[in-house]
Amino acid sequence: MAMMAGFAGGLAVAAGSALGGVARFWVAALVNRRLGEAFPWGTLVVNASGALLAGLLAAVLAATGGLATLEGLLLIGFCGSYTTVSSFALQTFTLVQAGGWPRAVGNVFATLALTLSGAWLGLQAGALIPGGGV
What we know:
5 helices; mainly alpha
């Protein structure tokens, strides 16, 4: 990742963070409405899709010379705010406290598998761009 500093860089991260937070809210709410909240499906979908997007963006930015402002806006700001490790941790412990050990373990393994797979797929997709790849 390119190092970014200064006022413009900070604004790019702030704008991306605002957009990512709103996107996380909408996506998680939509998924939870459709699949229910007995399992943290919304957070799982957000984290998996965010990992895929982060991998794709990393590859695309590497292919295009990685403009620091775009990296701050999209990768650091948007993806950093869109994905939600804190919600994942709290929801997993809530499942444990409710006696849902199998669901808690399933959430940990599903999150790990889907986010690592998503990041890998994003990197592979980005590598298809002429001159792309990390």
